[in-house]
TrEMBL record:
SMART domains: HTH_XRE (SM00530). Pfam families: HTH_3, Peptidase_M78. PANTHER family: ANTITOXIN HIGA1 (PTHR43236), BLL7220 PROTEIN (PTHR43236:SF1). It comes from Dechloromonas hankyongensis. This is XRE family transcriptional regulator. Belongs to the short-chain fatty acyl-CoA assimilation regulator (ScfR) family. Residues 13-67 form the HTH cro/C1-type domain. CDD domains: HTH_XRE.
Length: 403
C-alpha cells in the first residue's frame, strides 16, 4: 500500500459516492486522478496523498475526518415503493442518506435521550401470515399506544417522533420513490426517510403511515425482490396506512353512502387524507364494491386528473422536528457550538440543515431558540417538553430529553 492517508475508510467513500450520486469515473475527474485510482481507494488497495485527500473531501463536500471514521452498522435493508431494477443507483442514494440520518441521530444522542420507542410488536415472518384483521388490529393498537383517540390525527409526524421514530423529510431528487423505512441497530429504533419533492401534505402523511405499517407488520420478514411477495407487502402497508388515518369505527359513519366526490372532498380537509385514499379505505371496509370503486375513480380522473386534487394546497406538509429541536437545544445551551457542529457530525452544513430540517445558513447565523427539552444533566427535573401548537392537542408530546 502506498503512503498517504491510511485511515481512509473505503466503505465511507462508497457511501459518499452513493449519497452524491457520483460514479467512480466522475469522482476521479473532479479530484484530478485516474478512475483506476478511485477504484483502488474504494477497495482499500491504495491511499490518497494528503493533498489529494483534502481535495477528495472538498469535492464530496464532507469533513475530512468523516472519511476516516469507522463505519456504523448499516440500517436494515429498506422496502422501496418501486421495485424496478433501473432504480438501483437511486436506492443506493436514499439508503446512504438514511444512514447519514442514523449517524447524525446517534452522535446527537451522546447528549440527549430520545423518546422511548413505543410501537406495537408483531412477529410475522411471512406476509402470508398477515390477515386483514391483523392489519386493522395493529393500526388500532398503534392509535391506542399513541393516545390518538378515534378522530383525525392532527400531526402524524409529531406522533411518530413522540413514539421514538427518527423521521427525516427532505428533497431527494428521486421522485419515483416517495419514502423508505429501516431499523437502526445502533439507535435501537427505526428511521423513516420521506421525499419532500412533491410537497403534498396529504400524500406525505399517507407515505409516513405506510412506512409505519412496514415497521410494525414486516419487521421480521426478510426483504425480497420477488414481485408478487413484494406487492403483497406493499398492499398490506397501504391497508395499514388507511386504517391508521381513517379508523373504521369513526370514519365510516361520516361518509354518505353511496359516497360521492363532493362529500369526500369535504372530509379530506377534516381527516387529512386524499379523496383517493378515502375511496380505497371505503373499498377495504366493504362500503364500495369493485365496480363502484372503479366508477368513482373514473369520475375523479375526469374531474381533476389523476395526479392532483382540489384542496391539496390547504395543508402544509408536516415537518419533522425531533432532530431540529435537538440541534437547537444543544446550541442554545452552549453544549455544542453551531460553528463546530458540522465538524462534529462530519457532514456539510447544508447536509445537516436538510437532514434536521433547519433553516438555511443556520450554522452561520444560529437563531435564538426557546428551550423545549431538558438536558441529560437535569435528570431529576420534572419539567416536560410541551408542543407549542394549538392544533396538536390529540398528539402525545415528545418525551423530555435529559442530559
Amino acid at each position: 500500500m502506498t503512503k498517504g492517508i491510511n485511515d481512509l475508510q473505503p466503505a465511507r467513500l462508497e457511501q459518499a459516492l452513493s449519497a452524491r450520486g457520483l460514479t467512480k469515473g466522475q469522482l476521479a475527474s473532479l479530484v484530478g486522478v485516474a478512475a483506476s485510482t478511485v477504484t483502488k481507494w474504494c477497495k482499500g488497495d491504495q491511499s490518497p496523498e494528503s493533498e489529494t485527500f483534502d481535495r477528495l473531501a472538498s469535492v464530496l463536500n464532507l469533513q475530512p475526518e468523516w472519511l476516516t471514521r469507522p463505519m456504523l452498522q448499516p440500517v436494515t435493508p429498506p422496502l422501496y415503493r418501486s421495485n424496478a431494477s433501473a432504480l438501483k443507483s437511486a436506492r443506493a442514494k436514499l439508503e446512504a442518506h438514511t444512514e447519514w440520518a442514523q449517524e447524525t441521530a446517534l452522535l446527537l444522542s451522546d447528549y440527549v435521550d430520545y423518546p422511548k420507542l413505543n410501537l406495537p410488536e408483531r412477529n410475522f415472518t411471512d406476509p402470508e401470515q398477515i390477515s386483514n384483521e391483523d392489519i386493522e388490529s395493529a393500526a388500532e393498537e398503534c392509535r391506542r399506544m399513541w393516545q390518538l383517540g378515534k378522530g383525525p390525527v392532527q400531526n402524524l409526524a409529531l406522533a411518530a417522533e413522540s413514539a421514538g421514530i427518527i423521521v427525516v423529510r427532505q428533497e431527494t431528487e428521486v421522485s419515483v420513490i416517495e419514502g423508505l423505512s429501516a431499523w437502526s441497530v445502533p439507535l435501537h429504533r427505526p428511521v423513516v426517510l420521506l421525499s419532500a419533492d412533491k410537497a403534498n401534505a396529504f400524500r406525505s402523511r399517507f407515505d409516513l403511515a405506510h412506512e409505519i405499517g412496514h415497521l410494525i407488520l414486516h419487521k421480521h420478514i426478510p426483504r425480497t425482490d420477488e414481485r408478487d411477495r413484494y406487492n403483497q407487502m406493499e398492499k398490506q402497508a397501504h391497508r395499514f396506512a388507511g386504517a391508521l388515518l381513517l379508523p373504521a369505527e369513526t370514519f365510516a359513519i361520516e361518509v354518505r353512502i353511496p359516497p360521492n366526490l363532493d362529500n369526500l372532498l369535504i372530509l379530506k380537509q377534516r381527516w387529512g387524507a386524499s379523496v383517493a385514499a378515502m375511496m380505497m379505505r371505503l373499498h377495504a371496509l366493504g362500503l364500495l364494491s369493485d365496480d363502484e370503486k372503479l366508477a368513482l375513480f373514473k369520475r375523479r380522473s375526469a374531474r381533476w386528473g389523476s395526479k392532483a386534487e382540489p384542496g391539496d394546497d390547504k395543508w402544509e406538509p408536516e415537518v419533522p422536528r425531533l432532530l431540529r429541536r435537538t440541534v437547537e437545544l444543544l446550541v442554545s445551551e452552549g453544549i455544542l457550538a453551531a460553528e463546530g457542529m458540522p465538524r462534529y457530525l462530519g457532514l456539510s452544513p447544508r447536509d445537516i440543515e436538510k437532514l434536521c430540517h433547519l433553516r438555511e445558513n443556520y450554522f452561520a447565523t444560529p437563531a435564538e431558540v426557546v428551550e423545549l427539552a431538558t438536558l441529560r444533566g437535569a435528570r431529576g427535573s420534572d419539567q416536560a417538553m410541551r408542543v407549542s401548537s394549538n392544533n396538536q392537542a390529540e398528539v402525545v408530546a415528545f418525551s423530555r430529553f435529559k442530559k
